Amino acid sequence: MKDIIKDFLGILVLVLLQILVFNQITLFGYGCVFAYLLFIIVTPLNIKTIPSMLIAFAVGLTIDVFSQSYGVHTFAATLVAAIRRGVLNLFFSKDELEYNTSLFVKFSYDYYKYIVVIVLIYCFTVFSLEAFSFKLILPILQKTGVSTLITSVVIFFIQSVTLKKYNER
Amino acid sequence: MKFLKILSSLKVILVFVLLEILALLMFSNRSVFQRSRFVRFSMETSSFLYSKSNEITSYFSLKSTNEELARHNAELQKQIELLQNTVQRQNYLTSLEYDSTIAFIPAKIVTKTVNNIDNYFIVNKGAKDGVKEGFGVVSNGKVVGVIQYVSDHYSAALLIISSKIKLSGKIKNDGYLCTVVRDNLSTSKANIEDIPYHIDIKIGDTIVTSGFSTIFPENYIIGTIAKITSNPSTASNDLKIDYVTDFIRVNYVEIIAPKDIEEINQINTQIIEQ
């Protein structure tokens, strides 16, 4: 019960950060920061796909309501939550996934790759849905590239700050 | 056992498809959504949240805001001087009549997006302050956006850096009319196509509003020419312009409320009917 409240508060803080801080930031003219994705990345492994999709849907919807982007973030967040298990299987062995409820006690090279792939898929989905035209493929790719880079860096940063605390405990 | 496993993965796919269809429905019906009560409600609540956070963050930008206001003040002083001269020289009555066709509603931006294909911002003036859909928004004589949706105390506007907006502009020195469309890639650039070779243009020239729409009056600055590319197939020049408005920094705006908009529209429809 205590953990659920803690997780809920964590998501709330991320959403507020996203709405109030990161939504107002644009880097190099077309780079967006989707730091709230962190909640999908660190969802505990013992949570099944359906509940995590439902949570992602709800959080995506909240972000959509506050940034006047109807359904775009909802779609992308749900998609990422659905394929997360598959992406994890790409980078980690079955044993690692089986015995850790949380992979994220220490950083590894594989973990970085996992984050970048998740963020990349998310950004590409958001920008192509938003543009909704093949003519704009070049700007979509450019925006995806820059945003993936920035978002990943921000997520690494938040993770390293929170993980330090976690390890000290 | 295996059957159960397949069943459970089917369930996952089913829920996934259902959720994605919901999201896509929302996306494809966004124009309907934007007019619905749900969105008005969400706009009011999110605006409230943003204006609260703005109360805190606006202190950080006080310095630059002050500078902006001081600059604006100086410009106004200059204009006052100019106007006083004009008033003395010209017929007092006609100049008064000209000014009275437009009213300005000062407003503050509560929240905005600048990095999407279509960018919105919300201002703290709404229907109760006389704002209506289709009004233009300017800041210090530069174009900023167009009001799209109005609720009681707030209204949402499209920034001119949106793919939906095509501005009717003209080249200031020459008076040649053109259409300004935002650049797909950069949020600080726009494109103008098909300027004939005989029109004399150079880099740095100013593009202003033409005044031929009821949204913006004449001579509000849109941007300056940044690049001229010759297009032999149409025997004309294509221009790339830099917007002069700093969309990220702009905080205080004026909403243009044309007083006789109904009358103008009435005449327009009469012309079309004939």
Structure in words:
- The complex is a heterodimer of chains A (about 170) and B (about 270).
- With about 170 residues, chain A is an all-alpha fold.
- Chain A has one domain (about 1-170).
- Chain A is built from 7 helices and no strands.
- Chain A has helices at about 1-20, 40, 50-65, 70-90, 95-100, 110-130, 135-169.
- In chain A, helix 6 runs antiparallel to helix 7.
- The two termini of chain A are about 20 Å apart.
- By secondary structure, chain B is of the alpha+beta class.
- Chain B has 3 domains: about 1-55; about 55-160 and about 250-274, Thrombin, subunit H; about 165-245, Rod shape-determining protein MreC, domain 2 (Thrombin, subunit H), CATH 2.40.10.350.
- In chain B, about 35% of the residues lie in helices and about 30% in strands.
- Chain B has 6 helices and 12 strands.
- Chain B has helices at about 1-30, 30-35, 35-55, 60-90, 90-100, 260-274, and strands spanning about 100-110, 120-125, 135-140, 140-150, 155-160, 165-170, 175-180, 190-195, 205-210, 220-230, 235-245, 250-260.
- Chain B has a 6-stranded antiparallel β-barrel. A 6-stranded antiparallel β-barrel of chain B has the order 6-7-8-11-10-9.
- In chain B, a hairpin with a 2-residue loop joins strand 3 (about 135-140) and strand 4.
- Chain B starts with a helix and ends with a helix.
- The mean pLDDT of chain B is about 80.
- The chains are: A mainly alpha (about 170), B alpha+beta (about 270).
- The interface between A and B is large, with 36 and 37 residues.
Key features of this structure:
heterodimer; A: 169 residues; B: 274 residues; alpha+beta; Thrombin, subunit H; 3 domains; six-stranded antiparallel barrel; six-stranded antiparallel β-barrel
